[in-house]
Each structure stands twice: as structure tokens, then as C-alpha cells.
Amino acid sequence: MDSSKVVGIRIIRLEEVDSTNEYAKRIALEVPEGTVVVARRQSSGRGRLGRRWASPDGGLWLSAILKPGKPDPRLVFIGGLAVVDTLLDFGIPGGIKWPNDVWVSNKKISGVLTEGKGSEYVILGIGLNVNNPIPQELGESATSMMMELGKTVPIERVLERLLFHLDVWYRIYRERPDLLMARLRERTFILGRTVRITEGETTVTGRALDVLDDGSLLLEVGGELKRILYGDVSLRPV
Ligand code: ADP
């Protein structure tokens, strides 16, 4: 066994929880870095800005407790890159929709949510649709591994691969963040495309040019360059 393994050194399995991120926050200070919380279902799964994340039985809902020493917007990319690699292990090609989603054939299959407390900890939450049903209200906007493959997928194996890739990408993040960012650029499918970005009341439409070293998105808007720190990206500009 690799003695330098961090993510997944300890796994807490729950039948049901409000949200694995909330549970992880409650225990973060008492447990070692790399502790992972996995639940069979979440009663109040959330995305960004408190938006509901459907988390019924059959999906993978987990949070990893990391203690990198300081907050960093690039930590979210560890989740996206690990999900893309996990999907590839099962023959599913996916891409990252900057900053925090993974899409497969124009549909969302996974969301990543990082939440932190100063320099004390960062919770890296991942929701991945595996064998779970997709709620009707999400319609055509979401997919699952089962839908992509046309058969159920062994979820324990998915968990194992995901923890493996999280551990690898967390190590790369700490030792060679330049490599993490290089792979992120390769995996980010919005680069070169026209996108609409909404942040609060502000909406801006432009061409996504690059993800900068600090994790922000470089956008060309009417011939001018804009740096976007965070926002909702939509691929269908109006
Ligand atoms: P985004 O980063 O895509 O803007 P969030 O991280 O805020 O989205 O995630 C919440 C949104 O994701 C919800 O508003 C809903 O549209 C969508 N969603 C909720 N549950 C799921 C799911 N299980 N799979 C795919 N998409 C979902």
C-alpha cells in the first residue's frame, strides 16, 4: 500500500444524511485530513448558492475533508479532474464545465462543491449520478453513468476509483499545481466557445479563452479581456 495516501484514509459511511458537506463540516476539526464521508442518500443535498442537488439512492454522494492550510479556488478542480478520470475508467468521456461541473454529451453528470473555514479545512463535496434516477424536473439537462452505459454500474468500484483519483490529484495539486492546471485546461470543454456568465445580477457574454494559473476564467468580451473569478456558465447565450 502507498503510505503517502491521503484521501480516503478513513471512510465514514452513512445511510442517510442532510448533506455530506454539512456532516463533514461538523466533524472536520476532529478527524484527520483525508477522511471521507459517503452517504447512500442526502435529504438536503445542495449545489452552489444553496440550490437543491437531487441525491436519491444509487448515486455517489461524498465529501472529502482536506486540510491544505489555506483556501484556494483551484481545489475544486481536484474534484472535477478525479470525476473525469473515474468516468474514463468506465469508458465514459466527460469534460469539465468551469468551474465545478462535469458534463457528458451536453448533460450534467456530476457537481463539485468546495466549502472551507479559513485556513482550518476545505470540504470537497462531489455528487456523481451513477445508478440513481434523474428527477423529472431536470429533464434532458442531466445524465447518469447508468444512462450513458445502458446498464447498472458497480457503485463500490466507482467509489474506489474516485478515491484513488482524488488522492492522485490532491498530491499533484500540492506538488505540481502547474500540472493540475495544464490538465484542467485540456479537460475544460468551454474553452474557445461563446459562453454567458452570470454572477448575481451581472451577466456577461464572451468567448472563453483560457483558465489562468489562479483558476480564474479569461473571457474576451467585445475585444476586451475580462478575468472572471466565479460564476454560472451557460453555453447558450441569449
Ligand atoms: P451549477 O454549478 O451547474 O450552476 P450547482 O452546483 O448550483 O449548479 O448545482 C445545482 C443545480 O444542479 C440545480 O439547480 C439543478 O439544476 C442541477 N441538479 C440538481 N441535482 C442534480 C443531479 N443529481 N444531477 C445533475 N444536475 C443536478
What does this structure look like?
A hairpin with a 2-residue loop joins strand 10 (217-221) and strand 11. The mean pLDDT is 95. The chain folds into two domains: 10-187, Bira Bifunctional Protein, Domain 2 (BirA Bifunctional Protein, domain 2, 2-Layer Sandwich); 194-234, Roll (SH3 type barrels). The chain has 238 residues and is α+β, with helices and mostly antiparallel strands. The chain is built from five helices and twelve strands. Bound molecules: adenosine-5'-diphosphate. The site of adenosine-5'-diphosphate has 16 residues, from strand 6.
Short structural summary:
The chain has two domains: 10-187, BirA Bifunctional Protein, domain 2 (2-Layer Sandwich); 194-234, SH3 type barrels, CATH 2.30.30.
